[in-house]
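WARN  no MSA supplied for this record, continuing single-sequence
INFO  ligand: adenosine monophosphate
INFO  echoing inputs
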Amino acid sequence: MFWEEKIETLPLDRLISLQEERLRNTILRACESPFYRDRLAKSDVSITRNISMENLCRLPFTTKDDLRQNWPYGFLATTKDSIVRMHSSSGTTGRATVVFHTLNDIKNWTSLLARSLYGAGLRRSDVFQNMMTYGLFTGGLGFHYGAEEVGALVIPSGAGNSKRQIQLMRDFSTTAIHIIPSYAMHLATVFDELGIDPKRELDLRFAFVGAEPHSEELRLKIEDFYGCQAFNSYGLSEMNGPGVAFECPFQNGMHIWEDHFIAEIVDPQTLDPLPDGEYGELVMTTLMREGMPIIRYRTRDLTRVIPGICPCGRSHRRIERIKGRSDDMIIIKGVNIFPVQIEKCLMGIRGVGRNFLITLITKGYIDEMVVKVEYENGYDASLDTLKKAILEELRSELLITPKIELVPIGTLPTYEGKAVRVNDERNK
Ligand code: AMP
Ligand code: ZN
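INFO  complex generated
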């Protein structure tokens, strides 16, 4: 059940002392980089010397803008000779941020993924098909190395090319897939088109899904269609990529690997720390990174720490599935909405297909939300009833009344990578 039992179940007080010790080393290492030498010199020096988990909140934050402004090498804490790998974020706006790794960084990252995958149940006997983009995106190589470390047979199929994915799954009896949740839904449609039922014709045990926000309802749809367990995997390139937080077999929140990271939740407006249980922005600090330590990074991801101990025995705290990124929040008619709220409603309604698209438009001076929803084959006869059901659900969840357009399955755009759920055409 455990990959590294001692560390995964380390008593809380010892975990905290380990974090403090590693944090002090991280600060020393970070001061080797041009960015932190300057940034930390400007902050309270006595704090940086006597850092503890209590006064951590007095250290300055690091933001995506800091990474951009100090692009490409301003955060490097080692010589370039020690760097063996570069990755970048998949950000759609502005310059993509880059992260550099030493060989030890890659080894540590790999061990975190091995720990995550083994904890979920992956074993040497599994055939692991990695349907993620290989390259600068961290989802491909990160999982690839982790699954190899566990000893599984890895099929580096990469993203897209759905028919080939299905062929590989059948030919080599794939038992585990790593897949973007929205793409898992698209692939399901291709399975249907080919008349193949994965529940009957495949031996899937696990789907590891992550890289984008998704609801519990979508997870259930994946589990139901593929006949396997779906595990949520969270990470961001600034903190390596995947392997930051991962679900255990209890599937109730993702354990953050606190021996490698410090996670804080802060109020996104005041930036004050929030206690466990309260929703806010996740702020992360690397504890083991050599090439590019990052301190108090504002992830923009909104979640909360789930209070209490997980029955699996791991002492590392859990975060709830990500509600959304603060920059993905839609503000319409004064109401704040996350796309995942809409997904959650839609995926719980019988007759709704697997894809949707939110479009924001301005009519006169008024903003409107149009939700295009694919309906399942065979639902053509009762479209009015389906529309009413969707409208009711969305109205009570969002407190505004969107316009609903039902479209046949396979009509809306699909993506090999992260889905684009919102099309904002306001004031254009
Ligand atoms: P990247 O910069 O490409 O590494 O993307 C990292 C971002 O993807 C995170 O900051 C999150 O916004 C999102 N993300 C990654 N994994 C998940 C997940 N399991 N659930 C929700 N969002 C995720
Ligand atoms: Zn657990």
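The pocket of zinc ion (ligand 2) is lined by residues 248, 250, 255, 310, 312, 314 (CB under 6 Å).
INFO  checksum written, moving to next record
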